[in-house]
UniProtKB/TrEMBL annotation:
UniProt name for this protein: OmpH family outer membrane protein
Similarity section: Belongs to the Skp family.
Keyword annotations: Coiled coil, Signal
Signal peptide location: 1-17
Biased composition (Basic and acidic residues): 202-217, 239-264, 275-330
Source species: Flavobacterium ardleyense
Coiled-coil regions listed: 37-104
Region spans: Disordered: 192-217, 239-330
Record has Transmembrane as a keyword: no
InterPro entries referenced in this protein's UniProt entry, alphabetically: Chaperone_Skp, Skp_dom_sf
Amino acid sequence: MKKLFLLISFLSIAAQAQTARGVKIGYIDMEYILEKVPDYADAMNQLEQKAQKWKQEIETKRAAITILKDNLKSERVLLTRELVEERDEEIAYLEKELLEHQEKRFGPRGDLIIQKTVLVKPIQDQIFTIVQDVAEQRKYDFIFDRSSDLTMLFADRKHDISKFVVGKLTSSQKREEMSKKQLKALDAKEALEESLEDNPAVEERQRILDEKKAARDKAIEERQKAIEDRKTEAAAKRKKLLEERDAKKNGTVIEKDNKEDDKNNVATPKVSTDSGEKKATPEEIRQKAIDDRNQKLADRKKAIDAQKKKIAEDREAAAKAKEQKTEKQD
């Protein structure tokens, strides 16, 4: 109740000061930030492994005590009073030792809390340093931790800088492995992000530009996919043509079927093979047409050659007859 009263009083004073001179207030969520830090997750995994090991130790001791109690219960009637008291004292001592061990491991000042503090403190110190830098850069007068004991009755999301701190923390870890050129690009990106957060109009304009860029990238990706699909289809056709050509070289003969195609009313050639007949492929039909044309050209050439030969023979015979006639006149 006292903390609540102090918070209300402080916020009232801060509100009055903000009205008077423009106080800038922000807050962070330490739990949210820690969940986003890989080092924190690794530290928690290590601590969880130790906690499981300690729990197993405690359960082992508790099971041993249970066995002693069960044995004493079943043997009590057979033991003397002194032995029973001795066993009771031993069990009481072991139970006290178990409680002390449990307190040592999981108590308010136990090993779990101590080691968690040791593991988390360097990360928290790094976060506090970044928060101070952010406060100086962005001119914050107050920055609260929402996950702390200080109760916050209301907090507007626009004052939450947790994501910004996570980004700073991540970039600071990456900076150690970056070149000067990469660092310059990262600084420019962070400056742009800061300007977007401070100016909603610029942020909206940047959002529209990002959407246009995403749409353009998607269109380029779809166009590239279509090109790749066409290439794949063309390659499949080439492969099929090569296979058909190889099949033809292996002894297939193209013949024409007497039946007509039901759709096109055109005679459908067939290929004669050793295993029977099959329909000719478009490539085989095309090749048959080429062969027919070549045969016709060869026949035509042969006829022309025969005609030329006959004309030459006729001319030679006419010339010879003319010579004989001239000789007779002489």
